[in-house]
Specification:
- The protein has 151 residues and is mainly alpha-helical.
- The chain has one domain.
- It contains 8 helices and no strands.
- Helix 2 packs antiparallel against helix 3, helix 2 runs parallel beside helix 4 and helix 3 packs across helix 8.
């Protein structure tokens, strides 16, 4: 799948990053690095990668938002005590957890929980964008620095 998306260039970067930020298990970092190295277009990759990853997170947030406690208890056998414990964590840190939405594996869980516990949508959205942008900015610096050292 990575190779197919890589062959699509920036469109593949957008689609791959969007999918990676949903519940689809996929590495947006590997795709981002591959397309950044192949295209050598850091600004375009930054904008497209960030937009796709942010939009995917907003979809995940929306899925969480429409979720119901009863569904988690019934279909996933999550105990009410577990949900209460998670809610306390969300209440304690609030929308600031959105800055961690980029972290592999746990980031998607955080984002869906932010939606499920109905954090402020505008602030959550803004902080998700900041976190996603920061991640790709760092990749631009790392990969750009490596490309400069190699050439």
């Amino acid at each position: 799948m990575l190779e197919s998306l890589k062959n699509l260039g920036l469109v593949g970067l957008f689609l791959g990053n969007l999918l990676a930020a949903t519940i689809v298990p996929f590495s947006s970092d590997a795709l981002y690095i591959a397309i950044l190295a192949a295209t050598r277009r850091p600004l375009a990759c930054f904008l497209v990668g960030t937009a796709g990853n942010w939009l995917g997170s907003m979809i995940t947030y929306g899925i969480g938002w429409i979720g119901k406690w009863e569904w988690l208890e019934k279909w996933f056998k999550v105990k009410p005590e577990t949900l209460e414990k998670q809610k306390k964590s969300i209440d304690k840190y609030g929308v600031w957890l959105a800055l961690l939405g980029w972290v592999p594996i746990v980031g998607d869980v955080i984002v869906i929980a932010l939606g499920f516990y109905k954090t402020h949508p505008v602030w959550t959205s803004a902080l998700l964008l900041v976190g996603k942008a920061g991640r790709f900015l760092i990749w631009n610096l790392v990969v750009g620095g490596l490309q400069g050292a190699i050439s």
